[in-house]
Amino acid sequence: MTQIKNETTLAVRPPVVVILGHVDHGKSSLLEAIYESFKIVAKESGGITQHIGAYVAEFEGKPITFIDTPGHEAFSAVRSRGAKVADIAVLVVAADEGVKSQTKEAIEEAKKAELPMVVAFNKIDKPEANLERVKQQLSEEGVIVESYGGRVPEVATSAVSKQGIQELLETILLIAELEELKANETTLAKGIVIESYLDSKRGAAATLLVKEGTLTPGSFIGTRSSFGKTRIVEDFTGQAMEKVLPSFPCLVIGFENPPQVGEEFEVFLSEEKARAFLTPTNVVLPQLKIAEGLPTLDIILKVDVVGSLEVLEQALLAIPQEKVALRFVDAGVGEITETDVKTAVGTKARIIGFRTKAQASATVLAEREKVRIEIFDVIYELIKRVRTLMEKNIEPESIKTE
Fold it and tell me: What residues contact 195, with CB distance under 8 A and at least 6 apart?
């Protein structure tokens, strides 16, 4: 017999909105404008984010959860995950620059995830802004806005003057109402891992988005790669949360190790059941098949969060490797330790860090053993440096003479 879901157990939930668009078209500044206008609750309320951040805004008494995805092509994996967990996509297009390569990628991501879309024509206050040109470019990509006779809502915005911010939020809430977004608040919580990292003081931390049920402190929680107990549950101001309802993000401390970004999490009635949910896997570092006799650049990669690790591995392996192969000796999340330095000594590898730091003892040992540690805050610079190291590593071709 088919089980019919009882509609009375379902409650209206807030929309989860993903911000998509080309790099430098103003996605983060638009979020900051919303923050300043309508008090977004955000741990990272300023600056460009290099991994997914989750924010909650309240407009006309109704909450909206925003997921901010970075725009560089290297973050396509993170961006696609962002699209999968959302209900509505806001496509940000700079009115002065128009449709770019990542705008096209973002449109494809939204279409794949079958997300209702709103176009935010940003930077409308710039003298070079040309709305008609941008609308025409969008129509060529199959995005027909309402003023062109289509069904895609559009809003002209400016993060600087705050023009269109209120209208954008009104449009999001209207779409949410039409979508009739609902969830069961009374069941055991389920959701998605948005981000995870290793906190040097508090241990494994994860940003979670609850999709069903209510998450509370003291719950046994598990993903396919990690499990634990929710010792600490916080909102993005760092305030303790007694319960997290569907569509809301939270920071959870208590996992045994950082779970994988994009994984589903579930709450269980016992630690044994949470542990049983694990899928044992051997960690296999991504490698390309190395041709015999090809010189290699061996690196140990340490990064700030799991999302950065996955994206950087993909971006680095995308560097052409016909003459020199890149090989990951080790890769992980957290600070650079003495163990990393000892591994580098034994394998003659370089240590590359992204938005992390080296422990004092590791720095001392590295200096003594003459191990090179390089740490970067900007992903483009890290990729450029690895590319340069690979070029320097090319052995001169031997020329045979008769």
Answer: 51, 52, 53, 206, 207, 261, 305, 306, 307
Following DSSP, what letter does each residue of 58-108 receive, concatenated? EETTEEEEEEE---SGGGHHHHHHHHHT-SEEEEEEETTT---HHHHHHHH
Residue 260 has what DSSP assignment?
Answer: P
**Residue carrying structure tokens 């990690």:** 226
pTM of the model: 0.75
Length of the chain equals: 402
State pLDDT tens for residues 310-369. Answer: 888 888 988 888 888 898 988 888 899 999 999 999 889 999 999 999 999 999 999 999
- For residue 169, CA distances in Å to 2, 79, 88, 132, 165 come to 39, 21, 12, 23, 6
| Pairing of β 264-268 and β 190-199 | antiparallel
CA quadruple 197, 198, 199, 202: dihedral sign: positive
